[in-house]
Amino acid sequence: MTGKRKAIQQRRKIDQDLENQFRFLQSVIAGARDPILVIGTDFRVKLHNSATQVFHDLKQAPEKNMYCYQLMLGLEKPCALSGRACPLVDVLEFGKAVRVEHKQKLADGKIRFFEILASPLEDEDGELLGIIETFRDITERKQAQKKLQMAHIESERKVKERTAELVATIETLRREIQDREWAENELLKAKERDELLNRVTPSAIFSVDLEQNITSWNAKAEAVTGFRSEEVIGKHCSIFALDPCTKRCGVYSTEITKPIVSKECKIKTKDGDVRIVSKNADLLIDTDGQVIGAVESFEDITKLKQVAEELQAERDKFSVMLSAMEQGMHIVTRDFVIEYQNDILKKAFGDRIGRKCYEVYKERDEPCDICRMLEAVDTMEMQHTEATMGNNRYYKQSYAPFTDIDGEKKTLILLTDITEEKMHEAETLRAGQLASLGELAAGVAHEINNPINGIINFAQLLHDDAHNELELDLSGRVIKEGKRVADIVKNLLLFSRQHDIDPEDIIVSSVIEESLNLVQHQLVKDGIQVQSDFQEGLPFVFANPKQLQQVFLNLLSNARYALNQKYPGANPEKAIAIKTERVSLEGKDYVRTTVTDWGSGIPKEIIENIFDPFFSSKKPGDGTGLGLSISHGLIKDFNGHLHVDSDVGEFTTMIVDLPAS
């Protein structure tokens, strides 16, 4: 028991000694003026003195086991991972004390430099427990080093500057001697070149001083003006100058930009002739940037101006001739660019200079598949064609190739608007067709009416002698269908002779029914239903019944085409609705007829053009582009209106308004 008590007492004595030593170590560290830290290998601060708290401007003591990089630098990760030097890592790597410089911004805003000495801390077995770091303020030493370094740099700079100045002075003197020799040689060469240039240059050249006195005069100037050099040197330039020089000297004017290029003016020769010249001029400036005079060159363009005026007169005469002949003219390059147009085509197409011909003529994004212009240029032979242009007018076109003065092959295109002529031709052709149709109808009437009358008469006899209901029904059907055939032949004959019929008071619904009778077979064949709504008690309209029938036949034909485009086969939506009603327009009574189909519709971008001659949205061969144009004209002749309402893919409604008689 006594031995155990002694061991305890001995242990307490050792602990007391260690505690006393630790306190002593703490008091030593705490009393140090420089910051001292003990950092474990886990980067945690094990011990620090009060100077550390002051150094980092901490309001209270750091948290226990705080990481060194948090305390010293306010970082979230070790210095090595932040691109900074780490004393602990260096001690662990090299196993000896290391020195690291540290830059710190104090609470007062001043920058101080510290030297950190990190020494290894080992246990009694030599195992590394961490490091002891001490901070020493080396700001003054750094400042002194910097001042010394700057002084050294400044000294070296001054030595270099002085040396460079001496070398530059020597080099400048050497270059000045060389430049003087070179300048003298160049001056001599320049004088020889100027004399040679003045002799051989094709332009007249002269120079003047600030008082506008002539200082040089070359041989070409003598040839143009007739004045010899000795007659003008030292004389004022007005000796030969005229407008505009005599009113104001352009070369010395601050309002005129220099150099002056291709300025036309007049001069007088020694013999008193007036010549037109094209002049270039600029100021003469010395090496110091001072104006010391001016130089001018000029060429006699009197003959060129006369030729240009003659060409302009001929072109104007040619343009007037074309205008009188109502001929439009374009000049087109091989690259399809329009580079000239006369007033007729400017009025027809607008200003199209610089545009591609296929854009203007055909509203295309690329050249035409068959290009008459290229064919004319390639064969150097005239080409002719007729076609509808982008403005929906029909033109007769002639392409004449030629080689321009610049050597480029171009084409003169003459365009003659023959829209009205073509319409007259179409009307004439149509009249001829109707005349032929009239003759054919007369023959058909003669050949068919007699047999039909016989059939009707015989059927009537059978009907009168019928013995039962079946015979009555069959004979009655024969009589009815025979009369319908006779009516169709009669309508066909009347339609072919429409120009022989004068306008009269008619009922619109009757004309529509006659039109439906003529196309009923085609509508039934295509599976098209007709829905009619004829308002009763409508007033008469004053019109040619057969011409009005022609209008309705055209509208029905267009409606049928649109429905077949949208519905190639049978479809319950395949229908045409016809409606007549009384409307009041501007205080007057009209009979309005609407023909509506639910077919392909008309795009908005072309709806304004559908009444233009030769305009057609149908496939080639399916339409002439004259149907709606003629119909529009006929309705206009009846003092009525024809317009359209449509939505693509939904419907089209043609509206015919005729004034009440």
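Next protein, fold it too.
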Amino acid sequence: MIGRVRRRRPDDRGAILVLFAVATPILIGMLAIALDLGYGFVQTRRAQNAADFAAFAAAQQLNGSTVCNGSIAPPNMQQLVDIVQHVVSDNAPSIGSAWTGQFIDDTGKPIKGSNFSSTSSNAAASPPPGACGVLVDATPVWSPFFAQILGINTLTGNGSSDVSNSIQGQPIGIVALNKVGPHETLGGGSGQFVVSGDMVLNTDVENQPWSVSSQGWEFDDAVDAKTGSNLYVYGTIHANDGTYHNEPLWPLDQCFASQGPVGKGNGGGPAYGTAPTPTNALSCTDNGAKVTVGYNAIDPTVAAINDPLQSAGSPPSPFNTSIACPGMNAVTYSSSPSSGTLLPGEYTNPVKITGSARFDDCSGYAGEGAYPGIYRFDKGVWIDPQTSGETVTGSNVLLATNTPYPLAGNVPGSNGSGGFVASGSGNGAPCLPKGTMTSAPSGDGSPEPEVDGSAGSACSGTSSTTYGVIAYGDSSFKQVTGLYGTGDNLSLIVGGVSGTTVALSGPTTGGYAGSDGAAGVALYQNATTQANYGFDAESGDAASINITGLVYNASLTNYGGSAPLDYWDGTGGGIPFYAGGTLQAGYGAGWSDGPAPSGGTVTINGTCIVDDFNTDGGTTITIVGHPFSLPGAGRLSFIG
């Protein structure tokens, strides 16, 4: 067999060289793409990690802050910028300062106009209200390895991430639901009144005796301070968006009108405990006395709201549902214990506590673990420890009240052989000793008679020692003939002598509990029965009072034109009185020949939902607001 040998033609070698010459750039290009894309993937992954970690770190700083879902001070912009830059640099040095941030709300939606970057270093600035998270967008830049051969000298990537915290509402200290009256929130005493959190004022002050026009606004006196007091709101005052004389309403007293609408906006400013006063601290002279109202901002664009606890999704009234511990029948008590351990149930007679006592939950009653104790006081309860060192406590409990406590000077009645017997309800105005005069700062410059001592103004029958205050008309500033105070109309009275302590905390389980085990509804007034609350609001009170949870009294049943828009304390001012819906903290503002002002402290850790909140006397009042969702937000949350 003869084999064949194939000889290479002379031009084959040249063809291979040509093919190699043509393929080499392609191979180099493919290698460059493979290497540079791989490195680019690493850089982009690092950028994404940097954005993830930076957004998480920034969101952690906002969690629990007053701008999101808590009551602590938020970080300033310099702190946030430093945190984001530090995390970015640690995870992706190639980014440098090429990143931007934007605040987002609890749903992940960007907040308009809230962009920031590495140059946003204003240490005085704060995140906007509702800022519960941050969106970080990072852009790494690097030089390629082989792509430069093709004229590509730099490559860029992108990493973007957003992290947000959940929110149950803004921290709110007071929701004042009175739709028509002025002085919805009043600092009327000589003690300090602090609200940590927002305030919501419902009124459009239909009866406008106090309104003054200034710089295109109507100052309607929805929030005020008198008698040398200081009212500080470390938050935003949300006021009704109504108008009067075709001008928008501004909620401050006419005393501040010359200073104009200061602090218009929503949010920002220091948190309570971080500064001696809020951002805007306005002072004026009220008939010779300097008064101060401070706040971080005023938002006058809020429409009137309805009662949150009468809205869909709210828990039932304790007067319309079973209050028994699980597995037990409802227990009714006709006795009136003065000390010791009280057990859950319905108390059909007035209860006055004068010594150390404890309100128990179901765990000490029916062996039901931590199930809350619900107490229903059909004729009021007066907590009044009388010896220094005594304490009245209650944890995981709800105290519900109905008709006012029958105390002489609280409601009308008579003194008989069996003691004082109530004959009706009070109208909210106090009863004072004969001869009491108004204080000059609130009496239009000169003291005036507070009570006339006549039989027609007696508060407690033929043997009365107290008399109803003289009422002055809201629009005329003249005495309303025949109308006197008939008593504070208090269904819940909490006080005591100096050195005593009252500490009550709302349910942490069950239908009245707050979120995540927090205290929920602590105090509940039957909304269908007009009555008020009084904290250190009796003569001689100086107790230390601490309420943790939601405080509810919106029992002013008439919001219309016939609502009792009358005033006591003279023709020039004073504190409005209502038969229901008022939380009165403190007693006595320095009346001439009258009772001594109260002392002590009142601290409420939670949201107060009332019609009006008044302070008086020398008591120090502090409201530490907690997140609360108002109607219209699609949810209702109780957090104490």
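About the second fold: Residues 632-640 have pLDDT under 50 and may be disordered.
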